[in-house]
Backbone:
C-alpha cells in the first residue's frame, strides 16, 4: 500500500511540474513584445525576439518555429552578390527544448523555407549566415517555396531597384490549425507584406499563399490580398505595425498605407 501511495505521489508531482512548464510556455506566447527596426515598431505576442542585422524575428516556443521576420532590403547593397550558398544551422540563442530541429526536415517532403530570403542579404558573410538559422526558416511545400514565394522575393528586390530606396518586408507563418506533421508544426499559410515609399507615403503590396501540396497556380497575382484583408490578417495574428513620425508620435498601419 505504501509503495502504491509513493508511486501515486511521484506521478502527481511530475504532472504538476509538467503543468507548470506548459503554463509557463503558453504565458510566454501571450506576452506582447516590441520589435523596432528603423522608424517602424511592431507589437506582437512572441516568446523570444531575436535581433539580427536588418532583421527582427519573432519566435514562438509553443510551435518551435518563427512567427515572422520583419526585415529591410537595402538599396545600397542590392547589387552585392555572394555566390556561395551556406548550410542551415540551428540558432543556439533559442533554448534547446524549443529548437526548430533541422533533422525533422530530412525526408519530410517539406523545404526549409526562408522568411527573409538569402538572396536579399548578400551583403557580407556575417549577415548572410543569419538567414540560414532556424529562427528564419519554416516548413514550406516545394511548389510554394520554389515557384511562388521565390517570385515574390524577386519582386521585393526589383522594387528596391525600381524605387531606389530601402524596402521593408514582413513575412509571417500562420499556424492557426496547429497542423502537426513529420514531428513539426506546419504553417497553414505564408503572408508577405511589402512596404515601399512612394511620393513621401508608404504603400504596400501583400500576398497570402496557402502552404499546400496541391497543384496550385504559380502566378503570384492570384495570391494578392486587398487592404481590408491585410488589416484582417494582421489582427488575427495579433500584429500591430506603427511608424514613428516625430518624437512620440506614431501612425498605425491602416490598409493601403501608413502616413500622417
Residues:
Amino acid at each position: 500500500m505504501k509503495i502504491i501511495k509513493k508511486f501515486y505521489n511521484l506521478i502527481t508531482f511530475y504532472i504538476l511540474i509538467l503543468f507548470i512548464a506548459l503554463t509557463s510556455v503558453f504565458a510566454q506566447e501571450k506576452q506582447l513584445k516590441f520589435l523596432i527596426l528603423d522608424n517602424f515598431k511592431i507589437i506582437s505576442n512572441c516568446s523570444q525576439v531575436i535581433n539580427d542585422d536588418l532583421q527582427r524575428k519573432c519566435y514562438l516556443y509553443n510551435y518551435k518555429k518563427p512567427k515572422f521576420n520583419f526585415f529591410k532590403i537595402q538599396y545600397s547593397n542590392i547589387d552585392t552578390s555572394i555566390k556561395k550558398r551556406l548550410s542551415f544551422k540551428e540558432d543556439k540563442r533559442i533554448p534547446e527544448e524549443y529548437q526548430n530541429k533541422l533533422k525533422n526536415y530530412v525526408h519530410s517532403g517539406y523545404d526549409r523555407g526562408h522568411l527573409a530570403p538569402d538572396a536579399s542579404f548578400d551583403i557580407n558573410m556575417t549577415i548572410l549566415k543569419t538567414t540560414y538559422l532556424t529562427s528564419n526558416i519554416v516548413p514550406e511545400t516545394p511548389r510554394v517555396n520554389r515557384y511562388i514565394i521565390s517570385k515574390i522575393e524577386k519582386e521585393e528586390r526589383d522594387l528596391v531597384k525600381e524605387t531606389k530606396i530601402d524596402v521593408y518586408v514582413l513575412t509571417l507563418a500562420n499556424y492557426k490549425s496547429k497542423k502537426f506533421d513529420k514531428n513539426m508544426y506546419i504553417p497553414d499559410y505564408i503572408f508577405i507584406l511589402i512596404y515601399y515609399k512612394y511620393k513621401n507615403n508608404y504603400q504596400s503590396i501583400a500576398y497570402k499563399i496557402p502552404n499546400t501540396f496541391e497543384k496550385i497556380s504559380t502566378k503570384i497575382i492570384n495570391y494578392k490580398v486587398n487592404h481590408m484583408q491585410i488589416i484582417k490578417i494582421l489582427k488575427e495574428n495579433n500584429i500591430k505595425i506603427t511608424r514613428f513620425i516625430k518624437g512620440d508620435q506614431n501612425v498605425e498601419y491602416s490598409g493601403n498605407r501608413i502616413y500622417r
Notes: Residues 1-30 form one domain.
